[in-house]
Amino acid sequence: MTRYYITQKETDIRKTRNKLDEHKVRQVRYERKKEKSKRRLTALDKKETWSLEKKAKVRKVLDKVYMSSDEEGADGGLVSQPPSWESDTFQKVKEILDSKYLDICSTRSKSLLLKRTRGVKKNKDTPDVPEDSKWLIQA
Question: Distance between CA 65 and CA 106 in Å, rounded?
Fold first, then answer.
């Protein structure tokens, strides 16, 4: 019950500072990235042709920080805007995992997923990545 009142207080503060809409947009982006990461991790677990080493290497970088943001498109779907620092290898891995997720997904679940199209690359600062994960950064 206390969480409800804290949330109401935070909402009131955001309203007075005119930050409520900005917060909602930020939360939507966060949730989309979180879901995208979760779907790809599920697909990675089901990927039987990859070695355990490759799965471990990919699992390290399937974090929300490295996911591209999705914006609402004109056709009701989502437009994925990959970051400018993303390597071709990382892009290919994500495509494979997305395809695998659609393969293991039920027909009903597929119908609930929004259609995604690939948009133009978005200029973003390169994130800090561990030395063994430099393969996801474009050279």
Answer: 28
